[in-house]
Amino acid sequence: MTIHDDAKPVLEVINLEKHFPVQRGLLRREVARVKAVDGVSFRIAEGETLCLVGESGSGKSTVGRLILRLTQATAGSIKLHGVDVTQLGEGELRPHRRRVQMVFQDPYASLNPKLTAGKIVGEPIENFESLSSGEREARIAAVFEKVGLRAEAMSRYPFEFSGGQRQRLAIARALAVNPSLIVADEPVSALDVSVQAQVLNLLLDLQEELKLTYLFISHDLGVVQHIGHHIGVMYLGRIVEIAPKKAIFTEPLHPYSQALIAAAPVPDPRFKREDLLLEGDVPSPMNPPSGCRFHTRCPFVTARCRSEDPLLREVAGGRFVACHLREDN
């Protein structure tokens, strides 16, 4: 499946899977598998943002870690600029690591408290480039300036920064080696609302200036609506709908997408959305339901949903949905 058939993707993920073994007993025998990611496919074109949304445990963050090879995939392929990085050894992977960087959720835990800010941003440069100390200092100062930090802050330690400044520092570290793809895993969820807007606007400005490509992982639909170009809705390890942002927010096609949009807070109290309440809990990824994985909570479930797994298929230009209700449209 594609987002833009005419655009060469920076990132292409095909049938990606990650199953974690569950071991028990003295001999640590495998008794089951947690299907955290189970057949995820998408593309992201240069300069665009794909947002992955869904409840906790849907597999969003695992997808991000798989793309960075922080976790090894069980199956599937991850193509960065056309090269399948899942098949590369550590030595072969090194040139590709600088092309994809990550901004983590917690700006307090993702920075080494024993290093100065300049050293934190300079480490990736040291790892991937041979620069003199003067050239490296100049590069670090330029990156600081780009994210809205003063060059004098290079000598300070992480505890001397506010939460928003720490996340700017984390973004600076990601930018230091000129990546083409940034995976942002809930990068503003730990920040105050006013600071969230500043960091999101910074990411948008950097994307426009540097033609960056983002995979943005979030549970906050307000944040997603502000920064995304396309949205992929995940449920129990799979993408159930992927479409342009405007289409998702104005006319979601999958019942789960409809429930997410209906549950999102609305700034204008005069605006009323039609409620779509879901019953029951999310099933265990260790033992997902047969057929459509959403059928145990879907208000429109049919007998076919309980037995036949729907495929993610295109129902309109750039709109993909995995739902039997949409197959006749």
Summarize the entry for a quick read.
With 329 residues, the chain is of the alpha/beta class. The protein is built from 10 helices and 12 strands.
Written account of the structure:
The protein has ten helices and twelve strands. The longest helix has 18 residues, at 193-210. It is an alpha/beta fold and 329 residues long. The strands form two sheets. An eight-stranded mixed beta sheet has the order 6-7-8-3-9-10-12-11, sandwiched between helices. It has a four-stranded antiparallel beta sheet with strand order 2-1-4-5. The model has no long low-confidence stretch (mean pLDDT 89). The two termini are 18 Å apart. The chain is globular, with a radius of gyration of 21 Å. It has two domains: 9-99 and 181-276, 3-Layer(aba) Sandwich (Rossmann fold), CATH 3.40.50.300; 108-178, no CATH class.
Topology, pairings included?
Blueprint (H helix, E strand, L loop, with lengths): L8 E16 L4 E17 L3 E5 L6 H8 L7 E6 L2 E2 L5 H8 L2 E4 L13 H12 L4 H14 L16 H13 L5 E5 L7 H18 L2 E5 L3 H7 L2 E6 L2 E7 H6 L4 H9 L39 H5 L5 E4 L2 E3 L8
Parallel strand pairs: 3-8, 3-9, 6-7, 7-8
Antiparallel strand pairs: 1-2, 1-4, 4-5, 9-10, 10-12, 11-12
